[in-house]
Amino acid sequence: MQYMLLIYGNEAGKKNMTKADGEQMYAAYGAYTQALIKAGVMKAGDQLKPSDTATTVRIEGGKTKVLDGPYVETKEQLGGYHIIDVADADAALSWAAKCPGASMGAMEVRPIVMMGN
Amino acid sequence: MPQDSDISARAAAEAVARRSYGKLVAYLAARTRDVAAAEDALGEAFATALANWPRSGIPKIPEAWLLTVARRKMIDAVRRRRSGQAAADHLKLMADELEAAAMTETEIPDERLALMFACAHPAIDPAMRAPLILQTVLGFDAAAIASAFLISPATMGQRLVRAKSKIKLAGIPFRVPDRADLGERLDSVLEAIYVAFAEGWSDAAGTEIRGRALAEEGIWLGRLAVSLLPCEAEALGLLALMLHAEARRAARRTPDGDYVPLADQDTAQWNEAMIDEAESLLFLASTLGAIGRYQIEAVVQSAHVVRRRSGRADWAAIESLYDALAALSDSPVVAINRAIAVAENRGIAQGLAVLDEVAGDARLKTYQPYWAARAELLARGGNVVVADEAHEMAIGLESDPAARRFLQKRRSELNI
């Protein structure tokens, strides 16, 4: 089963981090990604640029609307994701708990619809 | 504004819930084996108590009051779904009613141990035994248990329902097994208690579920098992093991919340009373002449605690105790702890050799303590480059932020 682990965190908190804390956070993410790779479960994963770089596009009544900012304004913003391939939901939750994002914000775990299943 | 009588009625109901929940569930479910129905009926009885007690006052024997109301709710529920089986259940409940009427002034029999044996029965999925005990004996809801075991609340709820229906449909008995079967069956009860405790202990900040620390609840269950089976050496051993571990809680973190490894802990912060209790339980267990896993693991803790007086843990004893544990099970956890003891006793190279022996075990590939032990021994042996890779894995697999920070600090110190 493939799962997407969506990493939500407070961007303001991240901006106000000391240099040392920031380095520690990136090193922890690096180690986490390495562990996913070495365990053979990693499919993909990326960090996203801050939500103020987001643009939302929709077509309503045939008209295109383009808005500055993310689709939903929330206290905690989507900051990155991992896609992993594991046996079941229990394993996915266990990996989500190991992500540094789990202790700084929240992780959303979503099963991915597989074509042909 | 809540009235004073509301508050005291609520407090009384909560006090009874804490003390007697499991006892009442066990008693209600023992005849029909229908744990879910017993829990539903008891839940309704508590709701009725909260509605009535502020007006009518708290009854003289709150437990008996709740039991009577819950039993009536169960009978009502059975009447509502009259079927062949329901009619049989109904007759049993009617018989119980008569029995209960005679009993209201006396003590309600304690069948919690029988309930625990049903929850930890070999026919029940091993992963569900501890959650079932937490729910039926202590009254935790599925969402709270799900958080402690890192499982989605909906999934945990379904699994609990399935396990309870298995108890009913498979006719799993509510009784303490005969002497001949007791040993093996007791193991699974003790293991479920230990799993509940360990889930709480591995989270040093304390897994709080509904304001109750899971590790404390594990100890409470351990005490219950000891009080009901005072001559079972392993039940005593398990309680001693949990008390030894819990005694160090305050020393496991600095005031800022940083992780402190066992070897660096301030022994003055260890809880003397808990350690003393653990030691006397172990002494009592040793007089019963039935050694086992929990007693050995508790004695390992005793050998660590020696540091209080001598300044150094008794690593020679710890190594031979892990030899004994390795002979009992092929658990990778034991192998890793044995490697650390060997390294302390006979040098880093020997310790690493023990780790290498188990390195092929597939379970270790994503087992955090293996990588942490490997990183530490490699670093102490001066093999900085390989240690760094192991540290990276140990950090990536760690879910506790304090332990992760500690490992990251250790890793960066080595790379300077």
The side-by-side strand order for the widest beta sheet of chain B comes to 1-2
Q: Return residue spans of chain B where pLDDT drops below 50 for at least 5 consecutive residues.
A: none
- Average pLDDT confidence of chain A is 93
According to CATH, the fold-level topology of chain A is Alpha-Beta Plaits
pLDDT averaged over residues of chain B: 87
Could you tell me which chain pair has the largest interface and how many residues each side has? Answer: A-B, 21 and 19 residues
State the share of residues found in helices of chain B, binned by percent.
over 70%
- CA-based gyration radius of chain B: 25 Å
Structural class of chain B: mainly alpha
CATH architecture of chain A: 2-Layer Sandwich
Summarize the main sheet of chain B. 2 strands, antiparallel
Question: How large a portion of the residues of chain A is in β-strands, by DSSP E?
Answer: 35-45%
Helix/strand-derived class of chain A?
A: alpha+beta
Number of strands of chain A: 6
Annotation field: number of helices of chain B: 20
User: What is the overall shape of chain B?
Assistant: elongated
